[in-house]
Design goal:
The protein is mainly β and 191 residues long. The chain has a single domain, classed as Beta Barrel (Porin). It has no helices and 13 strands. Strand 7 and strand 8 form a beta hairpin. It is elongated and about 65 Å long.
Amino acid sequence: MSVGVKFGVPVTDALETFRGNQAAYVTNTHRYLVGPTVQLNLPFRFSIEVDALYRRLGYEYNQFSGPGSPTSTRTVANSWEFPVLGKYAIWGGPARPFVDAGANFRHISGVDQIRNGISALNIPVNPVPEFNKDNDIGFVFGGGVEFKLGHVRITPEFRYTRWGSENFRDPVAALLRTNKNQGDFILGLTF
């Protein structure tokens, strides 16, 4: 069994944002992910990996015309992903290319939205109208290389997740939605 930490950067934005005639969304998601990992090593170069990856999501909404215009809102949320992967090392040795696939479970929490009006008063918005659901599941697959240096394993990897539904979406003009195609570059350090 190996335990360690994974950290990385998203290759794609978690949210897709668009500009309309009178309003626009802009993503301000942080460009990192981090969390613990556990890998159970099995015979014949197979293993099972479970991660708990955290990323901070966010977006801004700006309205240019209409009642109370101009207005803007800022929304932030915590995204936890729990990928459960079957891994196969293509060959043995100190540098092992591998492929992996499995399910990815996502939970969104701590969704906060603040509205800034003309008077610059910050007003909390509850419930957040763009927040659609807090749980989602997707199919994930990836590949990389595991380097073994003594007791430390370094694993650079690219992962792709196809999510089943949208956690966020604009209920009026479809100017915001969750990106159902997610790519991440991840670096793991395990012991």
